[in-house]
TrEMBL record:
This is Glyoxalase. Belongs to the methylmalonyl-CoA epimerase family. The keyword Transcription regulation does not apply. It comes from Exiguobacterium oxidotolerans. Keywords: Metal-binding. GO terms for biological process: L-methylmalonyl-CoA metabolic process. Residues 2-132 form the VOC domain. The keyword Metal-binding applies. One of its GO terms (molecular function) is metal ion binding.
C-alpha cells in the first residue's frame, strides 16, 4: 500500500488551482466533473514531482463535499491509499473488523476504483482505498 493522493475541499476552484500551480509549482493535469449521486463534484488534479492532489468543489447542495465544507470548512477532505487489488484489500480489512461506506464503491472515468473506509476506524480521517486495475 502506498499513498496515492490527498483530496482537498475548496470553495473557489480557480483560486485553489492558481495557488497550487503558481505558488507551489504543481501542474494542472486534468479537470472534470463527476455528477454521480453521492459524488456531485468538480475535480482538478494537480501533479507534483512525486505526488498529486485532487481539489474538490461541490456541484450540488447535497454533495458530500458540500456537507464537508459546511461542517468542517475547506481543507483536507480525504487521504487515498493505493492497493494492488481493491477487492482483496476490502476483504482483508473486513476480516480485521473494519467497515466501509459501501455506497462509495465506484470507478472513476479514468480507471481508478475506490471505496471509503468508515472514518471511525481511522481516527476521524476520511480514508480512501483505491486501485488502477487497467493501468
Amino acid at each position: 500500500m502506498k499513498l496515492d493522493h490527498t483530496g482537498i475541499a475548496v470553495r473557489d476552484m480557480q483560486e485553489a488551482i492558481t495557488f497550487y500551480t503558481t505558488i507551489l509549482g504543481g501542474k494542472l493535469v486534468r479537470e472534470y466533473s463527476n455528477p454521480a449521486p453521492g459524488v456531485a463534484s468538480n475535480i482538478a488534479v494537480i501533479e507534483f514531482e512525486d505526488a498529486h492532489i485532487e481539489l474538490l468543489t461541490p456541484t450540488s447542495a447535497d454533495s458530500p463535499i458540500a456537507r464537508f465544507l459546511k461542517q468542517r470548512g475547506k481543507g483536507v477532505h480525504h487521504i487515498a491509499y493505493r492497493v494492488d487489488d481493491l477487492d482483496q484489500a476490502i476483504l482483508d480489512a473486513k476480516e480485521q473488523g473494519l467497515t466501509f461506506l459501501e455506497d462509495t464503491y465506484r470507478s472513476t472515468p479514468f480507471g481508478r476504483r475506490l471505496i471509503y473506509m468508515n472514518p471511525r476506524h481511522s481516527h476521524g480521517v476520511i480514508t480512501e482505498l483505491c486501485d488502477y486495475p487497467n493501468a
